[in-house]
Every structure is written in C-alpha cells, then in structure tokens.
Design goal:
alpha/beta, 4 helices, 27% strand
Amino acid sequence: MNERQCLRVAFGMKNDTTLVDSHYGDSKFFVIYEISDLLPALKGEAFKRKKITLIEKRYNKAKGFKENDNRHGDLRKFKAVISQLLDIDILAPFRMEPNFLRIRDKTNKVPFFTKTRELNLSLHRLVENFDELWNQVQRKKKKNNTIPER
C-alpha cells in the first residue's frame, strides 16, 4: 500500500528567485510549493522519491501594513499574513523574526528558516529536512490546541 506524504510550503519572496531579506510579512508575494514523498513498498524496503510542484504565486495583501508604533511583531499584521496562508503547513522565511515565535506557539504552522535567500537552495534544504518537518506538522495536527488563525 502506498502512503503519500505531502507538505505545502510558502516562501516569502522579493522577486521570482530571491527570498525577501526583510520581514516575512513584508514579502512582495509568496510562492506556494507542494512537496510530496511517495513511500511504496518494494520487497519489504521503502524507497523515497520527492516531487516538488509549484502551486501558485500568491501576492501578499498585508505588504505595507501599518504596524502600531512602527514596531515589528504587530498582532494585527500577524493575523493579516496568517489569514492568507491557512492552507499552508510550512512557512519558510530566510531568517528568524519576531512573529515567528507566535507562529510556532499559536498556530498549526511550522516555521523553517532557510538561511539562504536563493529559492532553489531553499527548496533543496527543505527537501533535505522533509522527514523532520513532516513529523513536526503531524505533531502540531495531533495537538490541535491552536488559536484561531482568523
């Protein structure tokens, strides 16, 4: 029997090939990828094959959002960004930022910091960490103790 594992990932982008260097919520758009891992049985051994599919380019409706006191980590902006990504499992920014603690602790999303601004290398790093990310997403789904994202 085949089991299909699939993660939906959103990268915050500056342009078509480069992740945004500022805050995730300031991304011009998000590129949404689906990364799947098929695990068919072959004589008692599982072999893995990853498939990476670009789903869509989603323009960020929260870009330019006026934050209270010009501080980053504004709860209203957090909600404005998350509400656009309800169908996403993994949020993949270039680096850590204030709202990612809230995202990690208060939503069913898993943050993954790419540590590179190159989209192709970011995808490669995500695939390398697929099994651990899959496990984190499954743990979050089982907890089911997240706050409403809207």
